[in-house]
Amino acid sequence: MSDFHLGKYGLRLLQNVLTDNHSPTFYRGLEKYLRKELQADEVTVKKCKRGSHWISVPFKVNVRTCNESQTLFVKVLTEKGLRNFNYAIESRNLRILILANLCGLRYKKAGSKQDVLTYEAATLMRFKAARICAPTPLKVFDTEFYSLLMLEYIKGTPLGGGILRQGDAERVLHVVKHLWDSRLVHGDIKLDNFIRTKDGSIYLSDCLNWTGSRQAAMYYDLASALLCLSRKLEPYTVLKIAHQFFTALEIREVLPLIDLAGVQLDALTDEDRARQIKTAMQSF
Ligand SMILES: Nc1ncnc2c1ncn2[C@@H]1O[C@H](COP(=O)(O)OP(=O)(O)O)[C@@H](O)[C@H]1O
Ligand SMILES: [Mg+2]
Question: Closest ligand 1 atom to the C-alpha of 135?
Answer without folding.
Answer: 1
